[in-house]
Write a structure and sequence with these properties.
106 residues, mainly beta, 7-stranded mixed β-sheet, 11 strands, globular
Length: 106
Amino acid sequence: STVTTTTNYSASPSSGTASSVSAVLADATGGALTVTVPDMAVNGQIFIVKKLDTTANAVTLAAPAGSFLEAGASIAGGAAGCRVLTYQATAVGAFAAKTWRIIATF
């Protein structure tokens, strides 16, 4: 499924199943926003976030407290996350319970 948002967005666990792809198209024209992946990741699930606008406003991909999102060379929990660049997308995959890993940036 695909969602377009101009505000903070938190995906629910039902936003995807194993081998499914969920996408969020983020428009930060009105200000910085955070897209949070589901807490209870399903192994094999893929989640993509793409920044649609050209502003300097940040779009951050994050994991909820108690879950983890790979951010650069480290694993960050809670509010920490990774920045999605203008007109680029970041894809994360669920490979273990409560752990998301960056699998592509394009």
